[in-house]
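Priority: medium. Attachment 1 of 2:
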């Protein structure tokens, strides 16, 4: 999504070892063609560093079963959406 990204453009994904971690354990640059995927269920704290130039990003959240109901409510609240399973 960012074919001309440069380090000085900012906007990297910072992975943290805990919520109180201020340094981070790794910064993942938003390079063209790169995908960062990780489980998130309250176990992988992260943040996006300030972007100093325009960049594109796509965020997807996948929930299944009870976790979907827990996060998104009961199906009828979401127009045009049907729950399967949990």
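Attachment 2 of 2:
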């Amino acid at each position: 999504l960012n074919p001309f990204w440069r380090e000085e453009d900012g906007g990297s994904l910072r992975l943290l070892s805990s919520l109180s971690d201020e340094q981070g354990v790794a910064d993942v640059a938003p390079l063209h063609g790169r995908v960062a995927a990780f489980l998130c269920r309250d176990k992988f704290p992260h943040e996006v560093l300030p972007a100093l130039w325009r960049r594109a990003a796509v965020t997807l959240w996948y929930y299944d079963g009870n976790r979907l109901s827990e996060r998104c409510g009961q199906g009828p609240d979401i127009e045009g959406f049907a729950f399967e399973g949990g």
